[in-house]
Design a protein that fits this description.
The chain is an alpha/beta fold and 446 residues long. The chain has 15 helices and 13 strands. The chain has a seven-stranded mixed sheet with strand order 9-8-10-7-11-12-13, with helices on both faces. Strand 5 and strand 6 form a beta hairpin.
Length: 446
């Protein structure tokens, strides 16, 4: 899990506005951080908002003939890149430079500066190209109108202004061309949100892993449900591990779960999808299968060994008190130590994250709703990915019994609704609804 000694990598975005660059950069960053890399996004737009504010940054500010504005934008890009270099020099693994970088001259200057400051660092360009007017317009409405640039602005006025911004960039935009920028340039081109992907000079473990991840991305908006399997005998007896079946309360919870998703299909976020479009991913363990038994006729069901609970090794079947007594944790363990700590002859959270990586690819690839029915440790790892928690926080995350978490992530926010079903009373409640800002912080403030 500790990947801090690996070679530095810079992923630099380029492309016109409203082509999904910020979505790509933030989603990729979330994935890399979850895998244990010290990765960070440096968004030029965020620096621009910090330095010159938002009130002056309307379409005319991006006019290539506006020399004063061009100078201000160059200053913002310069500061962002300097912070990027500092990040890599002080232990960062992967830096993502999120900006338009629309001209060959700008890109060659970035390449030159990086080779001077960090000659050992690898640079890969990630260009997002989209010629589908429907997708572009949808991106303007969904993402850009929620951007801090247009806070408090009438949506129609904001959309009109942003279209003018795009026109200004189109006047100078040059796609990446190896004939101009050199045969040794490395790039990934994503065309029309993944319908076609072009690559050049992509080699090595991490770059190839990144390509594999990017191939699974899309911009469809579908909910994800993380569902904990019902109470089993071992859980009732405060024992870890094992593969026991549901208790009576667990069976009541499974009944309530079926009713919950029937309501979601009628009036909730599943109402616009056919049953055949909705998938259930569940583990191979007995309690998980018993939990979904009543729903398997309604949805597509997929069993995944990767979703099985963490392997507790020699602690299987022990009570929590027995584990603490016979296998006490070393003193003065840090949060990161807890991620790496393995059960004797079992797994650690780091092992579990590695096991869950193919599941993340499948979830990112799905364009329709997915219901994941799994177990405590597994769901904490998945929740950490989608809710953008630091991996060191995973052991302390809460995912109680009888809990459903519905997530609808987007570029700027993460919408989460948590439901608690009470099998004793038969009542269900919304425990909390959150909307958390996912804006990348200024590196200088961290």
């Amino acid at each position: 899990m500790d990947k801090t000694n690996r070679q530095s990598l810079v992923i630099s975005l380029c492309g016109l506005p409203a082509r999904g660059k910020t979505y790509l950069s933030r989603t990729l960053n979330r994935y890399l951080v979850w895998l244990g890399y010290n990765a960070r996004v440096f968004n030029i737009g965020h620096y621009r908002r910090s330095i010159v504010g938002t009130s002056t940054c309307k379409a005319d500010f991006f006019d290539p003939s506006n020399e004063e504005a061009n100078a201000a934008r160059e200053l913002c890009a310069k500061e962002a890149f300097e912070d990027l270099i500092n990040f890599l020099k002080t232990g960062g693994n992967v830096a993502i430079f999120d900006g338009t970088n629309t001209t060959a001259k700008r890109r060659m200057n970035i390449r030159k500066q990086l080779s001077q400051e960090l000659p050992e660092a690898e640079l890969i360009w990630l260009e997002s190209i989209c010629n589908d007017d429907v997708v572009i317009e949808d991106n303007i409405k969904k993402a850009k109108l929620n951007s801090p640039d247009y806070a408090g602005v009438d949506p129609e006025q904001a959309a009109t202004d942003f279209r003018r911004r795009i026109e200004n960039y189109q006047r100078v935009y040059e796609t990446i061309d190896s004939k101009i920028e050199g045969d040794d340039i490395s790039y990934i081109k994503i065309i029309d949100i993944g319908r076609q992907i072009l690559m050049r000079n992509i080699n090595g473990f991490l770059p190839c892993k990144i390509v594999s991840f990017l191939m699974n991305l899309h911009v469809e908006d579908a909910p994800l449900y993380l569902v904990r399997a019902g109470e089993c005998t071992n859980t009732r007896e405060n024992r870890i591990g094992g593969d026991t079946d549901l208790t009576e309360e667990g069976k009541q919870y499974a009944e309530m779960l079926k009713t919950f998703f029937e309501e979601e299909k009628k009036r909730g976020d599943l109402r616009d999808f056919k049953p055949s479009q909705i998938k259930i991913f569940t583990s191979t363990m007995v309690r998980a299968n018993s939990t979904v038994e009543r729903m398997k006729q309604d949805f597509q069901l997929f069993h995944m060994k990767n979703l099985d609970e963490i392997n507790v090794g020699l602690c299987d079947g022990m009570t929590h008190e027995q584990v603490r007594r016979e296998y006490p944790l070393p003193e003065n363990m840090t949060k990161h130590d807890l991620i790496l700590h393995q059960f004797p002859r079992g797994e650690s959270y780091a092992d579990l994250i590695e096991r869950l990586e193919p599941v993340i690819h499948e979830l990112q690839r799905s364009k329709t709703p997915v219901i994941v029915v799994s177990h405590h440790s597994v769901l904490k790892c998945l929740a950490a990915y989608f809710a953008k928690h630091e991996i060191d926080e995973i052991p302390n995350l809460e995912f109680p019994l009888n809990c459903i978490v519905k997530m609808r992530p987007d570029v700027y926010h993460r919408n989460e609704t948590r439901y608690i079903l009470d099998p004793i009373t038969g009542q269900s409640t919304i425990q909390e609804t959150q909307q958390k800002d996912l804006l990348v912080k200024d590196f200088r403030l961290l």
